[in-house]
């Protein structure tokens, strides 16, 4: 029996306000998936300076405590710079139960909107 699964694309952060100091996206259970992809898009009237982190947790309960989240290390900081843009984040080895995106404004003021779309799937049977 195959285990082919997919989490249909949805917005983990929808129309997030880039003037906020931070935005925490919706947590998604990715247990038993192989590949998770986030597509980060932003636009606005003012240059944006902020960072995106992807956090993971091994806790699969309905209410995950804040202390169980940890930042995934991609080797460099994922920065949002400029008035608009996009960034694709692909996680090809999923060894945790849940993920969520977190935006943090790093300096200055900003305006605009942030959307982060998620899709997840298994590679095969």
Quick overview of this protein structure:
With 125 residues, the chain is mainly β.
Any overview of this molecule?
- The N and C termini lie close together (about 10 Å).
- The chain contains no helices and eight strands.
- It is mainly β and about 120 residues long.
- The chain has a single domain, classed as Jelly Rolls (Sandwich), CATH 2.60.120.
- About 25% of the residues are buried.
- Strands 1, 2, 3, 4, 5, 6, 7 and 8 form an eight-stranded antiparallel beta sheet that branches.
Layout of strands and helices, then pairs:
Elements: E1 6-17, E2 22-24, E3 28-29, E4 35-57, E5 70-71, E6 78-91, E7 98-105, E8 113-121
CATH topology: Jelly Rolls
What is the C-level CATH assignment?
Mainly Beta
CATH architecture group name: Sandwich
What percent strand? over 45%
Total domain count? 1
Number-wise, the strands total: 8
Helix- and strand-based class?
mainly beta
Largest sheet: 8 strands, antiparallel
Distance N terminus to C terminus? 8 Å
Total helical elements? 0
Specify Rg, calculated over alpha carbons.
15 Å
Are there runs of 5+ residues with pLDDT below 50, and where? none
Series of H and E elements? EEEEEEEE
Tell me the helix content.
under 10%
Please, what is the oligomeric state? single chain
Mean pLDDT: 88
Shape: globular
């Amino acid at each position: 029996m195959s285990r082919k699964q997919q989490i249909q694309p949805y917005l983990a952060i929808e129309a997030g306000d880039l003037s906020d100091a931070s935005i925490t996206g919706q947590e998604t259970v990715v247990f038993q998936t192989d590949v998770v992809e986030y597509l980060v898009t932003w636009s606005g009237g003012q240059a944006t300076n902020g960072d995106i982190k992807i956090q993971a947790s091994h806790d699969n309960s309905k209410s995950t405590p804040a202390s169980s989240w940890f930042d995934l290390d991609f080797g460099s900081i994922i920065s949002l710079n400029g008035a608009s843009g996009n960034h694709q984040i692909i996680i090809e080895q999923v060894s945790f139960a849940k993920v969520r995106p977190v935006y943090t404004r790093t300096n200055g003021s900003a305006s605009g909107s942030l959307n982060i779309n998620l899709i997840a799937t298994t590679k095969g049977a």
